[in-house]
Structure formats: structure tokens, C-alpha cells
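Design a sequence for this backbone.
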């Protein structure tokens, strides 16, 4: 809800201080123990709490009047409980139905606790209740239809619980004063009933992150005061009723992650002049960019990703000077032509722009130099997955607050600009799948917080990239430098000091030397690929220490020696490729124990001996052993010859011969 919800709720509960206009300390002694009903109801509420880690309810005892208990507020005139405010106290338990006896109750605020069970039907007896907030608990069951008796209700917040079933709008439509209705992040199902139009005072309706389905009812157009409407991440479909786009009170529309289709109205900026946020991503909208949107001068967030919008972006988009987020990702915008990005010049007027994404569209031409004049408030800039060509212009270093930069999957060429070294807050940099070349700027890792770096599928070159460039990237978790022209060795010091790495992709380069034993220090490693290089030496037994490893690709190198049996200690390995090397010796039977292994390729080595026949070796479709002519046995589908049967005393002689051969370098003395 982009922060609107918290400010609205804060305003509602601030009304407490005005609405009550009293001081508990002025309660006279003669009235201190009046109204036994309220006191007993509160004690019943306490009895249902089985965990109170902060001791919030310790004051709820007979030593003082219940109007002095923590979280309890009483009216000055009648000493009746009118508010129960126990937010964020880590209370665990159920909500007692005796709360329904607090007949003067106006405000219930129990958000951010660990209440479970159902909302008591007895809440329907609280005729004076104005605000009910049970958000961020674990409450289940259905929304009580009897809440319709709470005719004074202004705000209901049941967000982030486990509520299920249909929204009882037919009953709740009697709440003529209801202004704010928050139901998002539950398990609600069914359709949004047409009777929603009877909630004539509604200003905020949030239904996001449920399982609602069907169309939006036309009657929503009757909600003339509706300002914020959120129904994102449901199963809603159909066309959004034109009446919603004609309500001038609307400031927020968020319907992302559904199956809506159709065009956005061409006059949307005229009919919704007060629009501040429009989020329709992840639907099936199509048509051109609604150029009239520039008339909604207060627009801050325009979020249209994952649709089928097409055409050009209006060159006066920068008239939206309050724009903070512009996300056009994964559409059909642009025409792969030179002027596709001309509109960026106008965005230099948007001094608060922080998120800007054009990725995965059809924008062509060069990245305009004026991009360097965009707001220095930018934290995320995505231009990847287009048809952009030419060089990366100088000036990206101006974005001192940039955290994420994506330029991947284009046709960008030449070198990385040196001023990338100024991006000291960068955490994500993706330049993969371009035609960039030259050596990596040595200051790239001035961004010590860089956690994901993708330079793959380019023409980069240079030796010792690990010690010369990457060493200062101390927080790297994902490193992709495959398919380049890098040379040199894989630095043992780099591996030893970068234990946070989760993914390493080094394939299709020209790395030489051995794989250092320090690779075992990468205890978080999940994916590791060094295939198609010129690495040699033994497979380090320390790889077994990478206990989270799921995928290991070492094919097409010059590794020799035997396969370490201790690799069987891997708990999560799923894919293992050691093919096209110079490995010798037997297949360790211990590999049969790898219960999650689904792909094993040992082909084109010099492995010998009997093939195991259990575990992954019992499924011919999951293993490849071709090109190892000294193997025998295994399941019939592998079509290897049976292993020779050694009988009688010759078996002992054969063992002696094998031992002598091993001892004397293969010669029999």
C-alpha cells in the first residue's frame, strides 16, 4: 500500500486523545470500583492470554482500579472502558468473547501480537465500536457477519492473519460510516459482492494478497469517496469497470498480480487528476501508453510491468515532477529505433525519481548521454533485455545512491566506464550478455557491499581478476564471469576470504592451474561451475566441505587423479558433471548414497572397474558414462560388458599382480 495504510491508521487512533478529553487521574475515589461488568470482562480477556513476555498484564489485578490497568482507557464521565490498546506486546492466546460485554468500547487495538483462534461473534454487541485493529496476528476462521451491528464503525483492520471464507459484504454493507477496510494478506476466497457499493463512506479498501476471484463489480463506481483501492495478488479477472477510472477521488489503484485485461483509458490522467499511485503489473493489459497520464501531476508511482503494453513513451513524461517510481518492465514498449529513449531527457525534471526500469522491452538505439542527468536519488536503474547498442556513456558515477544497476542482454560494446568506481553503494550490477570488452576497471569493487556481479557472456579479458579486481568485493554472494577471455589462476586467497559466495560461474574462460583446496571454505556454496577452462590437478577433497552444494560442473578441463570418495558426504548435490577430463581409478561406490543426485556425467575420462548399480546408477537416463572403455558391469541398459569372473587361486594371483603394478608404477618386476 506504499505507506498510505500506516498513516491513515495512525490518524484514526490519534483521535483517541481528542475523543476522550479526560484524565484518568481525575477519576474520583467514590467511583473507583464501579462497573463490575467491565472489570470481569477484562479479567476474562486476561485469562485467555497464556504468554505475556513483557509482563504487560501484570498491572491487571485487584490492587488498583481497572481504568489504571496498562492498555485500558476509560471515559471520565461513566468510568466505562472505551479503549483497549495493546499493540506489539507479543501476547499469545485467544480473544475472549467476554470482550463483547464492554458495551462502551470504541477502540480495540490488538495488532502485532500472536493471537489465534477466531474473532468472537460477540464483537457484534459493541454498538459504539469505531475502530477495530487485529492486524498481524494468527487469527483464523471467518469474518463475523455480526460486525454489521457495529453501526459506528469507521475503521476495520484485519490485515496479515489467516482468515478464510467469503467477505460478508452483504451484511457489512450496513456499516454506513465505515471509511477504512483492510483485509489484505489473508486466505479469503469468493467474489467481491456487488453490495460493496453500499459502503458509501468507504475511502480505503485493501483486499490484496488473498484468493479472491471473479470480476470487479460495477457497483464499485458508487463509492464516490473511495481514494485507495488495492486488490493486488488475487485471482481476479475481466475488465476493470470504467466507473473506477472515473472517480476523481481516487489516489491509489493497485491491482497487480491478477488476470485483468483490456486497455487503460486514454483519458485516465483527466478523469483521475488526483492519482498518486497506479500499479497494474502482472496482468494482461495491452494497448499504448496512456499519454494523458501526464495530467495527473501528483503521480508518484507508475507501475506497469509484466503486461503487453506497446508503442512509444510520451516525451513529456517528465511533466510528472513528483514521480518517484517508474516501472515499465517486461512489456512491448519501443520500436527498436534510434529515438526510443528520447523521453528520458524529460525525466531529468523528476528530482525524486528513485526506481526506473525499462528492462525487457523493445527499446533500441544508444543510451542517451542525458541519462547521467537523472536524479541522484536513483537507487535502482534497469535497462537490460532491450536492443540498446553503442557504449555505456560516462556519468553513471553521478548516481551516488545507486544500489542496483542492470544493463544486461543488450548490444553494448567497448569498456566499462571508469566512473563506475564511484558507485560505492552498489549491491547489484548486471552487465552480462553484451559485447563489452577490455579489462575490468580496478575500482569496480570500491562498492564493498556488492553482493551480485554479472559480467558473463562478453569479451572481457585480463589475468588474475580475482586478486586484481574482485578481492575488495568482500560481500560477494553471486559471481557470474563465464564466457569471457579471462586468464590466470583461481586465487586461493580470494576463495579463503569470500566465504559468503553462493554461486560462482567461471566457465568458458582460460583459467589455468589447479582448483585450490581453499574452495572448501565456501560453506554457503550452492552452484559452482568451472567447466571449459584449462584447469588441471586433482579434484580437491575439500569440496566435500561445501555441504550445501547442489550443482557442480567441472567438465572439459584437465583434472586428473581419482574421484574423492568423501564427496559422498554431500547432503544436497543434485547435478554433478566431471566429464571430458583425465580422471582415473574406479567410480567410488559411496556415490550411490547421494539421495538427491539426479544427473551424473562421468563420460570421456579413463575411469575403470565395476559400475555400481544402486542409487542413481540404477537409472540409465540420469547418468552418462560413455567414453570410459575400462568400465564394466552396471545395469543392462548402460550396455557395458560384464565384469570378468575371477575364480579359484587365480583370483589371489590377480590381486597380487594388481598390487605390484600399483607399487611399481605399472611394471611387474
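Sequence:
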Amino acid at each position: 500500500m506504499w505507506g498510505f495504510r500506516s498513516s491513515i491508521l495512525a490518524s484514526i487512533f490519534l483521535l483517541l486523545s481528542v475523543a476522550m478529553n479526560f484524565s484518568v487521574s481525575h477519576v474520583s475515589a467514590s467511583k473507583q470500583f464501579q462497573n463490575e461488568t467491565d472489570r470481569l470482562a477484562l479479567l476474562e480477556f486476561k485469562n485467555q492470554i497464556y504468554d505475556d513476555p513483557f509482563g504487560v498484564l501484570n498491572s491487571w489485578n485487584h490492587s488498583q482500579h481497572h481504568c489504571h490497568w496498562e492498555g485500558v482507557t476509560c471515559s471520565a464521565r461513566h468510568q466505562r472502558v472505551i479503549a483497549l490498546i495493546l499493540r506489539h506486546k507479543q501476547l499469545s492466546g485467544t480473544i475472549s468473547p467476554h470482550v463483547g460485554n464492554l458495551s462502551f468500547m470504541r477502540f480495540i487495538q490488538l495488532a502485532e501480537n500472536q493471537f489465534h483462534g477466531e474473532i468472537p461473534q460477540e464483537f457484534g454487541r459493541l454498538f459504539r465500536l469505531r475502530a477495530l485493529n487485529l492486524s498481524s496476528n494468527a487469527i483464523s476462521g471467518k469474518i463475523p457477519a455480526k460486525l454489521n451491528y457495529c453501526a459506528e464503525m469507521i475503521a476495520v483492520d484485519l490485515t496479515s492473519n489467516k482468515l478464510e471464507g467469503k467477505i460478508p459484504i452483504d451484511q457489512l454493507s450496513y456499516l454506513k460510516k465505515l471509511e477504512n477496510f483492510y483485509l489484505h494478506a489473508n486466505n479469503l476466497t469468493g467474489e467481491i459482492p456487488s453490495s460493496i457499493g453500499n459502503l458509501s463512506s468507504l475511502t480505503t479498501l485493501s483486499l490484496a494478497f488473498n484468493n479472491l476471484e471473479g470480476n470487479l463489480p460495477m457497483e464499485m463506481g458508487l463509492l464516490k469517496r473511495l481514494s485507495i483501492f488495492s486488490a493486488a495478488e488475487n485471482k481476479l479477472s475481466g475488465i476493470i469497470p470504467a466507473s473506477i477510472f472515473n472517480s476523481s477521488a481516487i489516489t491509489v489503484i493497485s491491482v497487480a498480480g491478477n488476470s485483468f485485461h483490456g486497455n487503460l483509458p486514454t483519458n485516465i490522467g483527466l478523469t483521475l487528476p488526483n492519482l498518486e499511485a497506479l500499479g497494474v503489473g502482472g496482468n494482461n493489459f495491452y494497448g499504448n501508453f496512456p499519454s494523458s497520464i501526464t495530467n495527473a501531476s501528483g503521480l508518484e508511482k507508475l507501475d506497469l510491468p509484466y503486461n503487453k503494453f506497446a508503442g512509444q513513451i510520451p516525451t513529456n513524461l517528465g511533466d510528472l515532477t513528483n514521480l518517484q517510481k517508474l516501472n515499465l518492465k517486461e512489456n512491448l514498449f519501443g520500436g527498436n529505433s534510434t529515438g526510443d529513449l528520447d523521453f528520458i531527457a524529460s525525466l531529468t525534471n523528476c528530482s525524486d525519481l528513485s526506481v526506473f526500469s525499462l528492462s525487457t522491452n523493445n527499446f533500441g538505439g544508444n543510451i542517451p548521454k542525458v541519462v547521467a542527468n537523472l536524479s541522484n536519488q536513483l537507487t535502482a536503474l534497469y535497462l537490460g533485455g532491450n536492443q540498446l547498442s553503442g557504449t555505456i556513456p560516462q556519468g553513471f558515477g553521478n548516481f551516488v545512491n545507486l544500489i542496483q544497476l542492470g544493463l544486461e542482454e543488450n548490444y553494448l560494446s567497448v569498456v566499462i566506464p571508469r566512473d563506475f568506481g564511484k558507485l560505492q553503494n552498489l549491491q547489484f550490477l548486471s552487465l552480462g550478455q553484451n559485447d563489452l570488452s577490455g579489462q575490468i576497471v580496478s575500482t569496480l569493487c570500491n562498492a564493498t557491499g556488492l553482493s551480485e556481479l554479472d559480467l558473463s557472456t562478453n569479451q572481457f579479458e585480463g589475468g588474475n581478476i580475482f586478486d586484481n579486481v574482485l578481492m575488495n568485493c568482500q560481500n560477494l554472494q553471486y559471481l557470474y564471469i563465464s564466457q569471457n577471455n579471462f586468464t590466470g589462476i583461481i586465487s586461493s586467497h580470494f576463495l579463503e576470504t569470500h566465504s559468503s559466495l553462493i554461486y560462482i560461474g567461471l566457465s568458458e574462460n582460460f583459467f589455468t592451474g589447479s582448483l585450490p583446496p581453499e574452495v572448501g571454505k565456501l560453506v554457503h556454496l550452492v552452484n559452482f561451475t568451472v567447466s571449459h577452462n584449462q584447469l588441471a590437478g586433482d579434484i580437491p577433497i575439500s569440496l566435500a566441505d561445501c555441504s550445501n552444494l547442489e550443482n557442480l560442473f567441472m567438465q572439459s578441463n584437465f583434472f586428473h587423479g581419482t574421484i574423492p570418495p568423501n564427496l559422498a558426504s554431500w547432503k544436497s548435490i543434485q547435478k554433478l558433471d566431471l566429464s571430458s577430463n583425465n580422471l582415473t581409478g574406479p567410480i567410488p561406490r559411496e556415490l550411490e548414497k547421494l539421495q538427491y543426485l539426479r544427473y551424473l556425467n562421468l563420460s570421456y575420462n579413463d575411469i575403470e572397474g565395476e559400475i555400481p548399480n544402486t542409487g542413481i546408477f540404477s537409472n540409465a537416463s540420469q547418468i552418462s558414462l560413455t567414453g570410459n572403455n575400462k568400465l564394466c558391469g552396471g545395469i543392462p541398459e548402460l550396455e557395458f560388458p560384464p565384469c570378468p569372473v575371477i575364480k579359484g587361486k587365480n583370483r589371489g594371483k590377480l590381486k597380487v599382480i594388481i598390487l605390484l603394478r600399483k607399487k611399481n608404477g605399472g611394471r611387474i618386476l
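Residues 53 and 191 are 40 Å apart (CA to CA).
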